[in-house]
Amino acid sequence: xxxxxxxxxxxxxxxxxxxxxxxxxxxxxxxxxxxxxxxxxxxxxxxxxxxxxxxxxxxxxxxxxxxxxxxxxxxxxxxxxxxxxxxxxxxxxxxxxxxxxxxxxxxxxxxxxxxxxxxxxxxxxxxxxxxxxxxxxxxxxxxxxxxxxxxxxxxxxxxxxxxxxxxxxxxxxxxxxxxxxxxxxxxxxxxxxxxxxxxxxxxxxxxxxxxxxxxxxxxxxxxxxxxxxxxxxxxxxxxxxxxxxxxxxxxxxxxxxxxxxxxxxxxxxxxxxxxxxxxxxxxxxxxxxxxxxxxxxxxxxxxxxxxxxxxxxxxxxxxxxxxxxxxxxxxxxxxxxxxxxxxxxxxxxxxxxxxxxxxxxxxxxxxxxxxxxxxxxxxxxxxxxxxxxxxxxxxxxxxxxxxxxxxxxxxxxxxxxxxxxxxxxxxxxxxxxxxxxxxxxxxxxxx
Amino acid sequence: xxxxxxxxxxxxxxxxxxxxxxxxxxxxxxxxxxxxxxxxxxxxxxxxxxxxxxxxxxxxxxxxxxxxxxxxxxxxxxxxxxxxxxxxxxxxxxxxxxxxxxxxxxxxxxxxxxxxxxxxxxxxxxxxxxxxxxxxxxxxxxxxxxxxxxxxxxxxxxxxxxxxxxxxxxxxxxxxxxxxxxxxxxxxxxxxxxxxxxxxxxxxxxxxxxxxxxxxxxxxxxxxxxxxxxxxxxxxxxxxxxxxxxxxxxxxxxxxxxxxxxxxxxxxxxxxxxxxxxxxxxxxxxxxxxxxxxxxxxxxxxxxxxxxxxxxxxxxxxxxxxxxxxxxxxxxxxxxxxxxxxxxxxxxxxxxxxxxxxxxxxxxxxxxxxxxxxxxxxxxxxxxxxxxxxxxxxxxxxxxxxxxxxxxxxxxxxxxxxxxxxxxxxxxxxxxxxxxxxxxxxxxxxxxxxxxxxxxxxxxxxxxxxxxxxxxxxxxxxxxxxxxxxxxxxxxxxxxxxxxxxxxxxxxxxxxxxxxxxxxxxxxxxxxxxxxxxxxxxxxxxxxxxxxxxxxxxxxxxxxxxxxxxxxxxxxxxxxxxxxxxxxxxxxxxxxxxxxxxxxxxxxxxxxxxxxxxxxxxxxxxxxxxxxxxxxxxxxxxxxxxxxxxxxxxxxxxxx
Lengths: 447, 656
What we know:
The structure holds 2 protein chains of 2 kinds.
Chain A: H1 3-22, H2 28-45, E1 50-56, E2 59-62, E3 65-66, H3 68-73, H4 75-83, E4 88-92, H5 97-108, E5 120-122, H6 136-161, H7 166-182, H8 184-190, H9 199-218, H10 222-234, H11 244-247, H12 255-262, H13 264-275, H14 280-289, H15 310-324, H16 336-346, H17 353-363, E6 371-374, E7 379-384, E8 393-399, E9 405-414, E10 419-423, H18 436-446
Antiparallel strand pairs in A: 1-2, 1-4, 2-3, 4-5, 6-7, 6-10, 7-8, 8-9
Chain B: H1 5-8, H2 13-30, H3 38-49, E1 55-59, E2 62-65, E3 68-70, H4 75-86, E4 89-94, H5 100-111, H6 114-119, H7 123-127, E5 135-139, H8 159-165, H9 170-176, H10 181-188, H11 195-217, H12 236-244, H13 250-261, H14 267-274, H15 278-284, H16 290-304, H17 321-340, H18 342-356, H19 362-376, H20 380-399, H21 403-410, H22 424-432, H23 437-447, H24 452-462, H25 464-476, H26 480-493, H27 510-523, H28 528-533, H29 541-555, H30 560-565, H31 572-583, H32 591-599, H33 605-618, H34 621-631, H35 639-655
Antiparallel strand pairs in B: 1-2, 1-4, 2-3, 4-5
Helix pairs in contact in B: 2-3, 2-4, 9-11, 10-12, 11-12, 11-13, 13-16, 20-21, 20-22, 21-24, 23-24, 23-26, 24-26, 25-26, 26-27, 27-29, 29-31, 32-33, 33-35, 34-35
């Protein structure tokens, strides 16, 4: 079973449930959606005759196995299912078209008729048995998803009514903090998850995770870190005010476009102050200053003691790292190591040198999520930061010497001099964050 | 983690055929003359080359190869599978012997409405007259989908129809049809180095750039007329196309890049290069010929100097591939040294912790952020928004009873924020929002409490904007205690600009004017005397009385002549008030003034008598001397003089 299979199913069901709400049964567009959904179900069931998709603790499971990425990506659909009281969907070959249609209409809220042919069954006791394969990282992912939801909500609220409730984000960040404390290594790896379609949201959550992690490394308390984390998560919220055409422009911006981009810090600060609430002052400060550089350049020009606030400086470092390692509209992603090099190059001018050094100390020379080609030909993903300089890299081998993907990635310690090359995760066809569950198992094996 | 089963089969002959069929189907859908197009001819070649007699099962949008589902990686393949599924095709056998005419005939049937095909006897019957397809389709009847009923088909021009209207090269059409990067690369790439595919690839890119990027900049969007590009990201196709570069064979990447670098100033070439990461550039740099290598480095240096900093300043200042590598190592060494320096790391973290643990002054943070926002915002409509948020927060603190914080934030209006002068009117307008009756009442209630000083600062800060509202409230307030509070608020509000009250002094209601005069007096600002002076002769004695008091408050001794003259007021009440003021200690050296007034004969007799008595009551040495002079006059011809002599003598006698 792969994430892709479940994602395909959820895509198919989501599309069909929307289509059913828009067009009558038999409409060509609905029929096309039915065909797509059929295909995705067939893929989902493979190689079984029957399988269950279950919702538990804000995550999707296929036959008791958590499906982490889809749980993040299809969180909205997960909510739709929860709202309709759907805890599990059991699918059995051959799927009846009527059942499929009923399911889509039921989840979409356009009908209360349940599938009746028996090929699709809802909330079967066996499927919703609480003894699901909840991994230690499930809660971490749930927190990540909750923070994503908060960002989606905040963004939507800003577009529709120009304001939002800060407490939504504060609650999410508190959850993220708790989970980051419980699983610091896993949290760093999870922060490598990227999304092309929702870049800003995922980036915001990643910046939140990394800021909390850096703050914890420094040794400050939750009382200090959560407000800073809220600022980190909301630092780019002002981008809601920037037109998508400019945000998505695939090249160098002209002066007018650039000017539009540069307003997002002040727009973000303004919206946060407008929202009010406990911690809004800190979050607004971070949002306003996250592009104001350490040496007084950047934008907007801030006059606060001649340099940005310490929280802003911390977020700047983390923001830069995640932005560089992400695929942007105007540039392909850089490797994590290269991002560290950029940070190091700007330490003392663009960024606070102490924080840059602390961040590099946290991430190690090959940060979690780095994909390396070993001297012996394996492709491995670094899953934890090195505990000390020169220490072997804690990796999972994801491709063997023959270049074949390995179903169950194996733990491996890679000496630094055995790293032949660092490669881009996307070029290697690997999503490091998807290894999260495997990391947990690997750590047990290592022990 | 993907198991990779689909990838395992990617090189199999069957998959090649399916991928080729997908590309050919897209081509068939896009072109009026698909048989002349490269992907179409390539599909025929692939079918013939890979004809092994394999049977491929058909599912809804999927193929089944050797019992395993092959999930298409390309949209075109999925579309073929879907169409075949709708036509009840159970499986395809790859027979070979394909021709472009045969494959076109096959697609013609597959493109037909599935219900029409059923009515014609099914897909097998329709295909029976088509030769040299290269595949055999076997029909089944397991799942029959109901045909469409009504709907909006045809109401919107299809993207295929729209693309047809554009004069585009083959690859560009393919990209326009929504092909992914890998699909584009598969259609564009060849294993054998050749000039033609490189030129075709670049030409298609330039066309896309022209149609999409330049089209998007075209005010009327005429170039994109009819195309349903995603409004949120119209450039997705361009990005996918450039992304396809990274899936091309290496030889082609190098040739395309060298071609692009031949003229990096061209807008489309610059955009192409801008998409590359520093990692991409350094990976490709060593394989470029010298000229292109130099151009790439020049490009990187120039790009890094841009204000927007695209693509990233990774290659800035480097002049050769060797230096690129050296710089990379140098920074890597620095990273390593940071990691190795454990002792300093601990100190560093401790240093950061100290700074982070410094108490947060949220009030200060808030004010600083708002000040910075007021300073940096040069868009007038957004400045207005900033000002509104600022005053809204002040209002919230006032409502919450946190007057200290409200006053602290309001201080920004006092000139601390260097906002542009053009926006003064917006600041005033925002401050007016704070002058609601509710807010003022809550301020009035707090005025006498512990936060009285803060309330005063707030009102002083609000100044002129609040006076209108206070005057209105003062005029209508029935509760005496509240009136007193409102008067105090008005005084505080007018402290810096007392003349702001002046326009209300002609009010017909004596009590309104009296309260305003009281407020003027309580401002403590001597400038307010100018306003008070306007009503010292008011026709209502109560106003005149209050005016006297205020003048004394505001001017001190300088008010003495006015008060002495009031001894001759028509109103007994005013006279008594004046006398009381003169007798009291509120005025300092008033004796000389009294004496001057008495001697000048400017006062009526009754007033002069009162002045004499006051002078005696004050018991000052100068006053006594004056009284002795008056009492000792030998010649007092006039009645007034005699009266004053007599009164003076009397008071002196009383004193002794």
